[in-house]
Design brief:
two-stranded antiparallel sheet; 2 strands; mainly alpha; single chain; 133 residues
């Protein structure tokens, strides 16, 4: 059994943006942002073929979406690059999708408002609460 967040249940990111190999890897690393992983661990955790992983790693490294944290012997360890503007936006997208999903499945308190209108009302309320702290 994995000690990390497994990709068993698709995240909101994968549900709405698709399950491409790149997104599956990014999603796994986002969910486990505090950890770094060898290629072998990534293969075991997300069940991706070796050839696919070896094909997408260079692209994600070039885009600075993931980074190498250190090497154990010759084996590099990979982690999501939390400083990447792309990663920051992906976190924001996932948070937005989660919020929209929760609004959509909540008892309808304002049936006259669209989902988008309810989202902005709720988001503005959270922003005001953050400002007051």
């Amino acid at each position: 059994m994995s000690k990390h967040f497994p990709p068993d249940d698709d995240s909101m990111l994968l549900q709405y943006l698709g399950k491409t190999p790149e997104l599956r890897l990014i999603d796994f690393l986002l969910e486990n942002a505090l950890f770094d992983f060898s290629r072998k661990e990534i293969l075991e955790e997300i069940g991706m073929s070796k050839s696919t992983l070896y094909r997408i790693l260079p692209k994600l490294l070039r885009m600075e979406i993931i980074r190498i944290t250190k090497k154990i012997g010759k084996a590099p360890l990979y982690q999501i690059n939390a400083e990447s503007p792309v990663v920051k936006e992906l976190w924001n997208i996932e948070k937005t999708l989660i919020l929209l999903d929760s609004i959509q499945h909540a008892p309808d308190q304002s049936p006259e408002l669209s989902l988008t209108e309810r989202y902005y009302l709720l988001a503005e309320g959270e922003s005001a609460q953050d400002h007051d702290r």
